[in-house]
Amino acid sequence: MKATHFAMAVSLVLAAAGPGLSTPAAAQAPGFDAEGCGWYIILGCSSSRLEARRNLIELGGPQVGGGAGSRVVNTSDLDGMRDGFYCVADGPYVSADDAGSVAWIEAVPDAYLKRGC
């Protein structure tokens, strides 16, 4: 995802979330399920960790997002994800429904949900 898309996404997320951005709703509780797996909202990926970190900062940093907060994840560290990428992700969430209820899906058009362990 290009930097301009991330900058626009930040504005959309902040507008959609309103003043309660840092206070997650109870339905958006982060965490892992009984098998140790969780759902992530993938906001963009890169083969470069540095580029992914820049994209995260352009989105507003780790404090922005749903209850779990956004961060850069190394897909090689998560079963169920394709190795070799650094993704800006919000998560983990216990269920796909919890992750899907977060405003990122509407604000970042190419965002998607992915389960990882």
Our count of helices gives 4
Q: In one word, what is the shape?
A: globular
Please write the string of helix (H) and strand (E) elements.
Answer: HEHEEHHE
Q: Estimate percent helicity.
A: 25-40%
Largest beta-sheet characterization: 4 strands, antiparallel
Secondary structure class reads: alpha+beta
Cα end-to-end separation: 24 Å
Strand content: 15-25%
**Number of β-strand runs:** 4
Read across the widest sheet, the strand sequence of neighbours is: 2-3-1-4
Low-confidence stretches: 1-28
Rounded Rg = 13 Å
Write down the oligomeric state. single chain
- The residue-averaged pLDDT reads 78
Number of domains: 1
Keywords: Signal
Signal peptide: 1-27
Commentary on this structure:
- With 117 residues, the chain is of the alpha+beta class.
- It has one domain.
- Helices cover 30% and strands 23% of the residues.
- The chain is built from four helices and four strands, in the order H-E-H-E-E-H-H-E.
- The protein has helices at 3-17, 49-59, 96-100, 104-107, and strands at 38-46, 70-74, 86-93, 112-116.
- Strands 2-3-1-4 form a four-stranded antiparallel sheet.
- Helix 1 packs parallel to helix 2.
- Residues 1-27 form the signal peptide.
- Keywords: Signal.
